[in-house]
C-alpha cells in the first residue's frame, strides 16, 4: 500500500482527493479557455499573493503575532515551494504568450521556452531529491537512521531512492523531443506540443510522483496523485497535445492554494500520509523510531527504468529517422501526435 487510507477517516480522505482532482480539472479549463481566465489565474492572483507573502515576512520580522502564527509562515517556509510556484507561473505566462502570439511569443526562437521552463522545474525537484539523499546520509552517520527534519518540521527519510529518482529526473529532461514543435490550437485556447506523447507523459508522471513521495511526503496523496492525474486526464480525453500547458496551469494553481491553505493537507480530516510513516502521524519534536521505505525504493526503480526505456526509444527512433530528436519531431506516427496536429493551426 502506498498511502494509509483506512478506518473511519478514509471517506473524508477520498472525498478530499476527489475535490482536489475535480477542482484542478475545472480550474484548468477556466484558465485555458479565455484570455481573461488566464490573466486572472496567472497575473492577478499571483500578484496579490506576492504582496501577501511579502507582508507576512516583513510583519513576522517585526514580531507581529498575526504573521508569526500565519499558516503560510509556519508551514510553508521551504525554498522549494516558492521556487516551484513562481517557476510554474512563469511557465503559464510564457505558454499564454505563445498561444496568443503576444510579443516574443510570435518569434520562432521563443518556441524553445516550454522545454527550458520544464527543464528548470525538473532540475528544481532533482536538486531537492539530492538534498534529501545527502541529509539522509548525514543522519545515518550521526543518528544511525535516515530521518531528517525539514525546515517545515516534517520528518523525511532520505536514502538511495532519492539518488535513483534524481537520475531519472535528469534523464526525463532528455526525453523531451521536438523542442521547436510548438503550435497554437485552431481555437487559440491551447498551446500544443504534439511530440510530447504518452511516452514522455508516463515517464514524467512516474518520476514526479516518486519525487513527491520522497520529499513532499505528507502532501503526496494530492500533489503526487491528484495533481499529476488532472492534466493527464484532460490530455487523454479532450485536450490532445495540451498536456504540458495543463500541467503548468494545474501546478501553479495548486501551489497557490497549498501555499495559502497548507493545513488542508497537513492537519485536517483530509490529511493523508504514505506507508513510510509506520508509526502514523508523527510529532516533529519526537524523532521517529521506525520507517517503511519499501515503496520509495520500488517506485524509484520503476521511474528510472521508465525513463531509460523512453530515452532508449527516442535514440532508436532518431537513428531510424535520421533526425535530431530535439530539433525535429520523431513521434509523428503515433495516434497522440496525429490527434494533436489535427487541432493545430499550421
TrEMBL record:
Signal peptide range in chain numbering: none
Pfam families: DUF5692
Protein name per the record: Uncharacterized protein
Superkingdom in the source lineage: Bacteria
Keyword terms: Membrane, Transmembrane, Transmembrane helix
Regions crossing the membrane: 12-31, 38-59, 79-98, 160-179, 219-239, 251-277, 297-315
Taxonomic lineage of the native organism: Bacteria, Bacillati, Bacillota, Clostridia, Lachnospirales
Keyword Membrane: yes
InterPro entries, A to Z: DUF5692
